[in-house]
Task: inverse folding
């Protein structure tokens, strides 16, 4: 049997590509070595949010007196939280599988390896058999980066050091948790375990957490974490890991951070090794597959989408890249744009951003006006956040009078950041946006308030 398309990988890019391809009438097979849904559904986005919602519910209960509600005996039952997480994953995996089946997309569970190209098409070996496809979409995702730190591999093997996968399966709350890396994954997991009772220390090599997010909002976010008892060692290099601690250097001083568990979360690397790319000469840079804005590689009829191309390691980016790839495969003109991809840290409060920050806009030489408002300008925010100190920012290009970026440190910001992304994509001017009616009272009204400051 020869397929129109082989999709290698069943994560967000892979399974959505297979669904779309099947819907378009292509004979498609998706090869996935674990469960469909990939890291996002099984050990990333969804399970993490399940844990964080439980933590948020718990925090609301113990701080209910701020709102005139007294809850006695509130506790977080970690095992029940994990059980619920497993139920959510099972439900969603079943849903993805059903949708693939409904779109006539075949799924083969196994480890696919590209074996070359013949006159019939691309040959992929899986479970000892060869599958042939006229086209190939590589969507093998990414894995946690493991740097050459002394003792790290041994302690990963022993279980003392965890990646996010193991942290989401942990049945006991560690009394002391050291987190190596202050990016999105590290912060979200640290936030949950701090709520669950761990004494958390975050170790970050940079002088700030949360990557390239707005510097001012990041400092506020860190301040909120510190109020909850979390400790931060910024500008700190991890030199070694023993069976009971993390050894570091900060400002020339050596430190030892004792821990019951260590979470490694310093980023991810594209899964390109061992999948046979060399057999068809697919070009990579720094370990990631190089693609153009149509998701095409340097090899005709070979596409790549999702984390494996290293452009934007986010599930929602992967979804859109998959759609662009399939549209081009079936002859529909479509291109991928990366200027308005939202990013969110799903802690309490949420830190959401899209487009340019104040720093990136100025680094690009843009003439911009930065509009900054306290979230307390939103009536609903004020009603629901006693003592909240969130901030919203808009970045407006003075030359074009269009919004080019925005950030918000606030509850619900993950739900309304898309509005700013839409404004950026549509290149709406400030005057255009002023004519849009926002529902009242909503937290997202802060956008309207900010726009009228221009």
Result:
């Amino acid at each position: 049997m020869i397929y129109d398309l082989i999709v290698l990988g069943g994560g967000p890019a892979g399974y959505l590509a297979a669904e779309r391809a099947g819907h378009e009438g292509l004979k498609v097979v998706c090869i996935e070595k674990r469960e469909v849904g990939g890291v996002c559904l099984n050990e990333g986005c969804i399970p993490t949010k399940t844990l964080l919602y439980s933590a948020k519910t718990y925090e609301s209960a113990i701080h209910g007196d701020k709102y005139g509600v007294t809850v006695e005996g509130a506790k977080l039952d970690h095992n029940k939280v994990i059980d619920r997480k497993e139920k959510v994953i099972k439900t969603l995996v079943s849903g993805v599988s059903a949708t693939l089946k409904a779109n006539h997309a075949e799924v083969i569970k196994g480890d696919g390896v590209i074996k070359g190209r013949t006159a019939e098409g691309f040959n992929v070996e899986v479970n000892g058999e060869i599958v042939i496809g006229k086209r190939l979409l590589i969507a093998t995702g990414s894995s946690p980066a493991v740097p050459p730190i002394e003792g790290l591999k041994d302690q990963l093997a022993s279980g003392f050091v965890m990646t996010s996968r193991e942290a989401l399966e942990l049945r006991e709350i560690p009394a002391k948790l050291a987190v190596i890396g202050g990016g999105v994954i590290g912060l979200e997991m640290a936030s949950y375990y701090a709520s669950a009772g761990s004494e958390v220390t975050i170790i970050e090599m940079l002088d700030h957490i949360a990557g390239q997010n707005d510097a001012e909002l990041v400092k506020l976010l860190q301040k909120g974490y510190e109020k909850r008892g979390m400790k931060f060692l910024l500008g700190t290099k991890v030199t070694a890991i023993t069976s009971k601690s993390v050894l570091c250097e900060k400002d020339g001083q050596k430190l030892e951070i004792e821990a019951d568990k260590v979470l490694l979360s310093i980023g991810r690397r594209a899964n390109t090794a061992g999948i046979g790319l060399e057999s068809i000469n697919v070009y990579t840079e720094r370990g990631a597959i190089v693609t153009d804005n149509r998701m095409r590689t340097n090899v005709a009829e070979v596409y790549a989408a999702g984390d494996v191309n290293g452009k934007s390691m986010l599930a929602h980016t992967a979804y859109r890249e998959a759609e662009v790839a399939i549209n081009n495969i079936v002859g529909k003109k479509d291109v991928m744009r990366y200027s308005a991809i939202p990013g969110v840290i799903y802690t309490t409060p949420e830190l959401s951003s899209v487009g340019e920050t104040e720093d990136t806009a100025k680094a690009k030489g843009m003439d911009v006006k930065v509009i900054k408002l306290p979230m307390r300008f939103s009536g609903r925010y004020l009603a629901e956040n006693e003592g909240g100190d969130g901030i919203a920012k808009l970045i407006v290009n003075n030359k074009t009078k269009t919004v080019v970026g925005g950030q918000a440190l606030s509850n619900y910001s993950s739900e309304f950041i898309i509005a700013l992304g839409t404004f950026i994509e549509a290149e709406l001017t400030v005057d255009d946006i002023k004519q849009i009616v926002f529902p009242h009272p909503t937290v997202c009204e802060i956008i309207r308030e900010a726009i009228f400051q221009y």
